[in-house]
Prior knowledge:
By secondary structure, the chain is an alpha/beta fold. The protein is built from eleven helices and 21 strands.
Amino acid sequence: MSIPFIMTYPITGFWAYRPAVGSWAEKLDKMQRIGANKVIMLGPILKDQSSIDTIINDPRVEDLLQQARARNMDVFLGLPKPPSHKKYPWDVAQDTLEEFFKGSQKILEGLASKYGSISSFKGVYQAFEMQIKASGNDTILNLYRRQHEQVRQTLPGKKILVSPYFLSAVKSGNTKETLLASTKQGLLNIIDTDVDIIAPQDGVGIGAGALYWRCEDTTFSAPISAFYKTCRETIDEVAPRRVQLWANNEGFEQMTLTKYLPTNKQRLDRAIMFTGRYVSDHISFMWDGYYDKPVKRSLAEEIAADTDRPIIVDVIRSGSSMGLGLRIRGYNIIGGTVNLQYHDLSLDRGGDKLISPDQCIENPDFGRSYNAKVGIFRFPLDMQELCIPLAMLGKPLIVNVNICNRQNTSAHHTYHAEFL
Length: 420
């Protein structure tokens, strides 16, 4: 039986390990209590043909699909993975691929026969990760192309989800322009392997990506938002109706080379703020060990206890029926009071404004209505929008925006926007 949502948090799906048979019900209930509607399974490593039947007939897979179906949740099953290269573990062991593809075909045929008609089985997750870069991925791209062709033949209608990772933005010899040019070509290469959903890892958990504004000092060459912007522009250019862009907002923090701990909701809110304007959904690696691991309380419990907090993901200067103004997009922002700090650089003047709800045009259904209008999944369904009048402000303009909602809860983070 479906558990009523306590809230709808922007992160709607989680990677999860396979628990003991009969344990999926409790795990899915906990996920659903904070608004999750999808689960992504890690893929098994296919070392030889002897494990094919075991992979197909794993009772934990059917348990997940049936329990998810009862809760109206979607499942992406992990595709089998080939062994990694012994010397370069981020790459594929190329000498195993021909035998691997034979086994992969048999597994996909078995999954189609055994589970293909279960409504919760929405797609597959390409479990061999790759870096989004212009060159150096030929073996992995070959794996993607051939295995995705197998999926199309054996599981027609199922979505293919990939979650690659960006080049490290830590300052080195690479400039921002070099990093983003490589990101664009790398994404084009992935799109050409016939995928439906690309959910890049934000890299914040492992320290490869950072969440900061242009005006802030940093040791990084580019903020993570610049990478997602490049991905958004690339998809809009070549495949806006075929490929969705999601964000994989990591649910952990790297403490040492081998030690990882759960992050906190404040950092997740910030990751959503910096990636949210570019994606149509948020998912997170991973549930086990991070969201369900209590320190004082688990990350899932922390999210559930902070149900009403606004998250701002975009501030746009535009026209409206009230004249020139700002459009503010995010979550839990309807009915809130806008706290605006502004600096009009052309007139060298600034100030603070408190804008009450009755001065705003509210669109609580922005995500759904926009997607329906354009016919694609461009924004998360639960994204909201406020329009506020600011005709007196010129350009160039810098604004900092926070919102205090009806429950007297303010966003963890102020949104900084520059219109130069």
